[in-house]
Amino acid sequence: MNDTKKFKLKYLPKLLVKSGSSWFNGEPFQRSAVVAYYAILSLPALIIIILNVVGSIWGRDIVQGELLGEISSALGTETAESIRLMMVDRGTESTSIFATIVGITTLLYGSTGVFFQIEAALNKIWEVEPKFENSIISMLWSRAKSFGFILVIGFLLLTSFVLTSMLTTFSRSLERFLPDNLFEYIYIVDIIISLGFIYVLFAAMFKFLPSATISWKSVRVGALLTTILFLIGKYLLAIYFKEMQPGSTYGAAGSIILIMLWVSYTSLILLFGAHFTKVFSDNYLKKLTILE
Prior knowledge:
By secondary structure, the chain is mainly alpha-helical. The chain has one domain. Helices cover 77% and strands 1% of the residues. The protein has ten helices and two strands, in the order ααααααααβααβ. The protein has a two-stranded antiparallel sheet. The longest helix is centred in the middle third of the chain and has 39 residues. The protein is globular, with a radius of gyration of 21 Å.
C-alpha cells in the first residue's frame, strides 16, 4: 500500500483530471442509460411509496404538491402532469388478498431497481464483489438496502418539508417587524436546506451502497463535489429543457424522454463523484476495507 499524503487544494485540478479519466474508462454513458431505463420502470412504484410514507405524516396533498413543484421547475409542467397521473390513487378498487400481495411485491421490487443498479456500478468502481457469494441472498440483500434508501429519501423529504414549513411560518410571523432585505437571508436558508438534502443523499449512497467500508472523509469530499456539479447541471438542464424543448420531438413519449435524460445526467454526475471519491481515497487515505 502506498503511503498516504495530505490533500491540498492545489492538487484538485490533477485529481479531477485523474477522476475524469477513470470515469470515462468506466463506460459511464452505458451505465447511466441502464439506470435511466430502470428509473422509468421504477418511477411509479418509487413515487407511490415515497408519497405514502411521507404523506401519511405530512399530508398526501401537501407532499404531492411539493414534489410536483420541484419536478415542474426541473422538467416542465407537461412532465410534471404526466408524473401526477402516476400519483393518482387507485387503491379504492377491490382486489383479492393474493392480488394485493403480488401487487405489493411487484411495487417493492420495481421501486428498488434504480438503487440496485447504482450499487452494482459503485461496486465496479471500488473493484469489490457483492457481500454474499450466493446470488439469491446477494440479490435479496441488495434489494433490502435499496428499499432502505427509499425510506431514507422519505425521511429526508419529511425533514426538509418540516424545516421549510417552520421557516415559512417564522418569516410570516416576523414579517411586520423585520425589514424586507432580511427575508433574502431566509430564502438563502431555504436553499441551504435543499442543498443539505441532496448532499446527505449522495453521501449516504457513496458510503452504504458499495460492498466496502469507505472512509467518511473521502465520502464527504466526494459528496460535496457531486452536489456542486449536480446543482450546476440542474439549472443548465432546466434552461435547456425550457428553451429547446427536446421532448416535443417525441410527441406523447416526450415526458418519458425528458425523465430518462434527467436521470441519465444525474447518473453521469453520480458516477463521476464516485470515481472522484475512489481516486481521492486511493491517493490521500488508507486503503478501503472489503466487507467480509
